[in-house]
Design a protein that fits this description.
Elements lengths: L1 H6 L3 E7 L6 E6 L5 E6 L3 H8 L2 H4 L2 H4 L13 H11 L10 E7 H4 L11 E6 L5 E5 L11 H19 L38 H4 L9 E4 L2 E4 L2
Parallel strand pairs: 3-4, 4-5
Antiparallel strand pairs: 1-2, 2-3, 5-6, 7-8
Length: 228
Amino acid sequence: MHQHARALRHDRVTPNAMLYAWESDLLTVTPQRHVCEVEIKISRGDLLNDLKKPKHSQGMLMNGSFMHKRNAKGTTPNELVEDKRRARGETACRRPNYFVFAMPCAVYRKLKGVELPPYAGVYTVDEEGRVFEERRAIQLHTEAVSVEDLLGLARRMHHRYWNAVGKPGPALDPGHSDGQKIPAGGGSSSVPRYTLPTISTMCFQCRLGMCCICSFRLRRSGMSTLRK
């Protein structure tokens, strides 16, 4: 998915971003500084649950409506930001310019009878990781994302990377591409010790190349290098 976004000349590909009143699986930014949100769905039930969320059910994406909650319990920091904007007299919540669902081809074929929002685009991904645009997203608005928000996304990615650097990983055998563990007492002390997750143990998002933290990662003496 990351490669697909870059092929469209989208920059600042950010997974698990908190830019709006909700968490976004993936945000990409076009050369015009328009934001595209990609929501990853791995099953039909997963998609149906997402359609019940306020961003869809309360028209937050469609027309910029502010979220209405029955009580203030469990309010997130980003929801508080939107509450303050509404108190200042803002007429619409912050939202992406485009919204797209991404799912495996097999899941998309089982969506008979499911009505997707008219603004939502659809990407499907086959078993080889190829991305297909099944439905093009409708532009929700034309306002460009602010430079401050872009810097905020970059700052979060910066902190996320260095947090990952500091996490110790289990000892693995660098001679095996599938990341086999080094037997107890085995292996040379001069052999680098690192963690190399495999495609079979990665989540759906990682298989799409979307998660910079779970991507092929080397950990060595407290230092980390991300492989693309």
